[in-house]
């Protein structure tokens, strides 16, 4: 299995290509987003690599839900040869992005996730890995129809679903309330939607989740074996002494950490310990 150094090198190589892409996402570009969240994304890719490399039977197919800008499916395809399909909002698959995915051997499927309840994804299923990282917090509708299809139709018997979301009760959200600020996403993201900035319509966080929320959602929709953890990652754009102090306090208790991550399956026993992930 590739180590973290290999993943980081591949990530930086991906970033060098992504810099040339003009695909805005609200106020972010691909380059600014990937530079800021390098540590978190590389760590999440390590989890996915462990799922693929330690599977009892060779993992041949993965599905990336809301996977813009394709870093996980492209990197896993390069590192393991796994066949990758990316599903995302039509606004993020047009123009250069569609060409970019095609050039890297990634099948891209357009989907308005809000329509899943009446129009399920037109995919055959049998995926050994399904990843959905930092995605469903952008949905202003229920994730239940999508999760039900994942566990009933898309995930293979011994497959693993890996999902991450921001923690709705993190130290940052709690501190915002104490100083009289909203714990919810900035109004600027909604202003950008009103101004029709490219990609802005799916940029705001409409609903963040707690650890208990994720556990309840997964169990209700058909997940059986699961492991849920919380983690705080450094952000490259905020590596100052204030952020270091904040990171120290946020790691004092699991409920204060910035991110919630879960691995789950319908049948196979799964945990982060079994994947041997730090």
Brief account:
With 278 residues, the protein is α/β, with parallel strands linked by helices. It contains ten helices and seven strands.
What does this entry look like structurally?
It is a single chain. The chain is α/β, with parallel strands linked by helices. It has one domain (4-116, 125-265): 3-Layer(aba) Sandwich (Rossmann fold). Helix content is 37%, strand content 17%. The protein is built from ten helices and seven strands. It has helices at 4-18, 30-36, 38-53, 71-80, 96-103, 144-154, 171-178, 187-194, 211-221, 241-250, and strands spanning 61-65, 83-88, 107-110, 127-133, 155-166, 225-231, 259-265. The protein has a seven-stranded mixed beta sheet, with helices on both faces. α6 (144-154) packs across α9 (211-221). It is globular and about 50 Å long.
Secondary structure layout:
Elements: H1 4-18, H2 30-36, H3 38-53, E1 61-65, H4 71-80, E2 83-88, H5 96-103, E3 107-110, E4 127-133, H6 144-154, E5 155-166, H7 171-178, H8 187-194, H9 211-221, E6 225-231, H10 241-250, E7 259-265
Parallel strand pairs: 1-2, 1-4, 2-3, 4-5
Antiparallel strand pairs: 5-7, 6-7
